[in-house]
């Protein structure tokens, strides 16, 4: 039998709600919550977005963090902020925070603010591209400082092959194919494969792989997912192997993949779990120090995808790789 609610319990609930409403009762803080819907930004980036001093921005972030509206995410020596990942329980405070998010998300971002966000994403993208241009000839060597290709490629290939026995996948997209080492797997399973990369140097290496492996059904495209969306492409299968930690806005990969997938299509992602080995930023061109599994799930659900199987692979050097699958309207397939 559930005990009756006492006045003390009710007062405790009110006391817990007060900081949330106080922290969110400011137009600037609501704007901060809006830009953090899918992105993760550092204090300096948020200061740049809102044209204010770092000390003032830090104060706002501290208040919002204390109220549970934000949580910090350490990326090496820098602190970034994001919305909380775990708001699934029935606590009144979590319900209230979710309602705040749902309300502010109904309001579109103003054009000038969106332009500033794109500028920050472009800065991140330029940083990543500069790394790959500099180390194109040593790509495999640099990447295997973290994880040898076969350690994550083999489980991804096995997962896709197992699914292909029940799904008719004619078209596939690989985002960020690197040297093209995974393209032979996709080429054998699908009639047509698109390999998309924004690095001309890496595409040149992928082209060499296609020639050497006689992959005649692979189309190499220099660009980003927006280029494929503009063409009206759609795919049964989308693969992103060890790509998310190199892109300026990982959440957008899920949104774009969903838009590019047919009903019943599948997105397969392999990437690093969250870690604290900051040296990878300089040595491997990483923009992000991995991701919590809940982050990928949250981005996928927000993009209208349904999580499927998960596999976690521990590596000797302290890294852990997660292999995840996400489906678009699986019940309609």
UniProtKB/TrEMBL annotation:
<dbReference type="InterPro" id="IPR011991">
    <property type="entry name" value="ArsR-like_HTH"/>
</dbReference>
<dbReference type="GO" id="GO:0008757">
    <property type="term" value="F:S-adenosylmethionine-dependent methyltransferase activity"/>
</dbReference>
<dbReference type="Pfam" id="PF12840">
    <property type="entry name" value="HTH_20"/>
</dbReference>
<feature type="domain" description="HTH arsR-type">
    <location>
        <begin position="9"/>
        <end position="104"/>
    </location>
</feature>
<dbReference type="InterPro" id="IPR029063">
    <property type="entry name" value="SAM-dependent_MTases_sf"/>
</dbReference>
<dbReference type="GO" id="GO:0003700">
    <property type="term" value="F:DNA-binding transcription factor activity"/>
</dbReference>
<dbReference type="InterPro" id="IPR001845">
    <property type="entry name" value="HTH_ArsR_DNA-bd_dom"/>
</dbReference>
<dbReference type="InterPro" id="IPR036388">
    <property type="entry name" value="WH-like_DNA-bd_sf"/>
</dbReference>
<dbReference type="InterPro" id="IPR013216">
    <property type="entry name" value="Methyltransf_11"/>
</dbReference>
<dbReference type="InterPro" id="IPR036390">
    <property type="entry name" value="WH_DNA-bd_sf"/>
</dbReference>
<dbReference type="Pfam" id="PF08241">
    <property type="entry name" value="Methyltransf_11"/>
</dbReference>
<protein>
    <submittedName>
        <fullName>Metalloregulator ArsR/SmtB family transcription factor</fullName>
    </submittedName>
</protein>
């Amino acid at each position: 039998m559930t005990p009756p609610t006492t006045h003390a319990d009710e007062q405790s609930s009110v006391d817990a709600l007060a900081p949330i409403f106080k922290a969110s009762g400011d137009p600037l803080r609501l704007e901060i919550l809006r830009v953090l819907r899918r992105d993760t930004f550092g204090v300096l980036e948020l200061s740049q977005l809102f044209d204010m001093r770092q000390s003032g921005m830090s104060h706002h972030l501290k208040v919002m963090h204390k109220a549970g509206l934000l949580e910090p995410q350490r990326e090496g020596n820098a602190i970034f902020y994001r919305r909380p990942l775990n708001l699934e329980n029935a606590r009144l405070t979590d319900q209230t925070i979710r309602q705040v998010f749902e309300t502010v998300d109904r309001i579109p971002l103003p054009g000038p603010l969106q332009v500033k966000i794109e500028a920050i994403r472009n800065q991140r993208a330029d940083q990543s591209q500069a790394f790959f241009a500099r180390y194109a000839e040593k790509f495999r060597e640099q990447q295997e400082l973290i994880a040898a290709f076969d350690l994550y490629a083999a489980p991804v290939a096995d997962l896709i092959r197992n699914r292909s026995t029940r799904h008719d996948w004619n078209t596939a997209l690989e985002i960020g194919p690197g040297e093209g080492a995974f393209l032979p797997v996709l080429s054998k399973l699908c009639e047509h494969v698109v390999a998309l990369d924004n690095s001309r140097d890496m595409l040149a290496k992928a082209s060499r792989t296609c020639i050497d492996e006689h992959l005649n059904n692979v189309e190499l495209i220099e660009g980003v997912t927006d280029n494929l969306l503009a063409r009206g492409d759609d795919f049964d299968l989308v693969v992103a192997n060890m790509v998310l930690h190199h892109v300026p806005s990982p959440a957008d990969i899920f949104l774009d993949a969903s838009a590019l997938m047919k009903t019943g299509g599948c997105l397969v992602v392999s990437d690093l779990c969250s870690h604290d080995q900051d040296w990878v930023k300089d040595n491997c061109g990483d923009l992000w120090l991995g991701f919590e599994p809940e982050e990928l799930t949250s981005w996928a659900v927000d993009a209208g995808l349904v999580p499927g199987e998960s596999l976690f692979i521990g590596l000797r050097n302290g890294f852990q790789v997660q292999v995840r699958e996400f489906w678009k309207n699986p019940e309609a397939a």
